[in-house]
Automatic annotation (TrEMBL):
Lineage top rank: taxon: Bacteria
Name of the gene this protein is made from: folD
GO terms (BP aspect): L-histidine biosynthetic process; methionine biosynthetic process; purine nucleotide biosynthetic process; tetrahydrofolate interconversion
UniProt organism field: Acidiphilium acidophilum
Designated name of the protein: Bifunctional protein FolD
EC number of the protein: 1.5.1.5, 3.5.4.9
Amino acid sequence: MTARIIDGKAVAAELRAAVAGRVATLGYRPGLVVVLVGDDPASAVYVRNKDRAAHGAGFESRTIRLPAATSEAELLAVIAGLNDDPQTDGILVQLPLPRHIATAAIIRAIDPAKDVDGFHPENVAALALGAPRLVPCTPRGVMRLLEVSGTPVAGRRAVVLGRSNIVGRPMAALLLSADATVTIAHSRTRDIAAECRRAEILIAAVGRAEMVKAEWIGPGSTVIDVGINRTEAGTLVGDVDYQAAREVAGAITPVPGGVGPMTIACLLENTLDAAIARRSC
Ligand SMILES: Nc1nc(=O)c2c([nH]1)NC[C@@H]1CN(c3ccc(C(=O)N[C@@H](CCC(=O)O)C(=O)O)cc3)C=[N+]21
């Protein structure tokens, strides 16, 4: 059996078009500001893609670029200014930050109503309590891919590989809210292959190139590959050994062209949600 390919690029394009259609009816341009500290080349690519998508959907979008030597106090001052700016609906501080800046303090300083990454403790708590407000973009995009691929979630065994605050934990919370039976597997899990093989839905989010082998995959299962790893040869690969996994899975996302474009589309969706919520109260 060869898996169906879940075309994240196409689904993301549809989602961006739907967001653009809603933005056009608003009478104002939702404002998104990305704050980039330092000059990591991978971050620069992502920020450029996001900026293009945001403009394409009718948003006001800008990137504030700060030098790597920016102090925590200076960054907090920039965030305070954006919190106070009525034209700014969404704030995204690109991660990772330079080591001398305490990431948790920065995330806590963002107005939760403008936290389009969904990383602020208030938004994390809302999701954990089953009453989500702004939800992290990548997990939100994964849920959409499960939906459009016709993968049933309620009652199914879902395994999330990875427990990061950005993907693994919020992913597990969303799947649980959708009534899946959720397992979080990680570096300390005793038999990780066996846990994965039991999954009807496998979300790979560990950040290790092609770590998930064909033998780890349940026949017919839906495999969502969140990993984006650059090989020494410069090509992008996921956390799943894609060519081999395709022969076992029922449906699978490619890398690139899977989850990545959905993350950006969901960032626009979150910014639109934030704008509507803020400006209607
Ligand atoms: N506060 C914060 N929020 C983030 O959401 C965030 C972040 N920091 N730091 C960096 C990571 C990375 N990230 C990506 C999003 C989309 C693609 C993407 O669109 N990838 C395409 C193309 C990749 C390419 O060609 O380079 C694809 O997978 O098809 C990649 C990476 C968001 N991140």
